[in-house]
Specification:
Layout: H1 2-8, E1 21-25, E2 28-31, E3 36-39, H2 42-45, H3 54-64, H4 79-91, E4 98-102, H5 105-120, E5 124-128, H6 137-141, E6 159-162, E7 177-183, H7 198-209, E8 212-216, E9 240-243, E10 254-258, H8 260-263, H9 282-298, H10 300-314, E11 322-326, E12 329-333, H11 337-349, E13 352-353, E14 355-356, E15 363-366, H12 374-390
Helix pairs in contact: 3-9, 4-9, 10-12
Length: 391
Amino acid sequence: MQKDFFIYQAQTTKFAAGFEVEKAEGSYIYGTDGKKYLDFVAGVSANTLGHSHPKVVNAIKEQADRYLHVMVYGEYAQEKPVMLCQLLAEATPEPLEVTYLVNSGAEAIDGSLKLAKRYTGREEIVSFKNSYHGNTHGALSVSGNEYHKREFRPLLPMVTFIEFNNENEFEKITEKTACVILETIQGAAGFLVPDEDYLIKLKKRCEEVGALLILDEIQPGFGRTGKLFSFEHFGIVPDILVMGKGMGGGVPVGAFMSSREIMETLSHSPKLGHITTFGGNPLIAAASYATLKEVLDSGLMDEAAEKEKLFRKLLVHPKIKNINGKGLMLAVNLGSPEYTLEVARKCMERGLIVFWQLYRNEYLRISPPLTLSMDEIKEGCQIILDVLNEN
């Protein structure tokens, strides 16, 4: 299987692991080598409830027995997509009330940018240096790392980049700005958290000039930081909320959410302002509803802060420079990309899956399932410390 993987499946790097997966359950992935591996990555923040959570799997099976795709997005009323959108509206603060379901976080970013331009009638976008929003042309255009963009230009015009947590650059947000888009917690840059009142001041500036605030919660959303969405820690509500990854509990999904007044503008002048064939797919919506319901009802969000404390308590070592992030979204600085990659490889050999950050490879990614137990945290952290001690 590994040989065919490298022959037939397009690669994203020259050093893919090619690890052969047999099955995955709970906090573990099982390889065809007969070994089990504790997963501290959760499919890069996607497997919110761990692997093959029975409520998610059962929801998929039940929906598969009823029907799969029946019509292009937005034409037919289907039970699970409607239930998912209703539950999202009930679980989020006003004025968030209407959800547009799509296939991925990157598509949701593209849709949110179109929505902001359509509603405001403006063309300029303000984004942030070192931001990451995905790899479609639109999402890449508002991502703030030139190394990952320059080979794919031309991209969207009229995009300005400002520095995260720097209020002095708010002057670049003007009456010509359609929207300001940012990750509530910067992901690829090393899980950087906004200063205490930064988002409040940013939202105020947007309101002063009539720009919409788009928050990208693709990674921190669905309980990862101890709240359903991480903006709830910071005293604001975005005009447009973008979600993905952990929303589906392991299936491909994305969405953007706004007020009815704003969202309604995509339905006319022109009609089909955004259209997607498989967005709102009932199979995916069933899995997403089951995931959201379990996150809301299980108490897992309430455990995130204590689990973060345990990680920070255990991961103390001279080779660890600092730890960024919030909840179960942590980035461990090991000083250099080369050393971090080596540590990740050695951890894998010992049965622990960790990863690295896209832009800041010196940071080791820890983004496990919310269902990870305290004992599993101890088990994984001991492996990391053993590797640090020996390498």
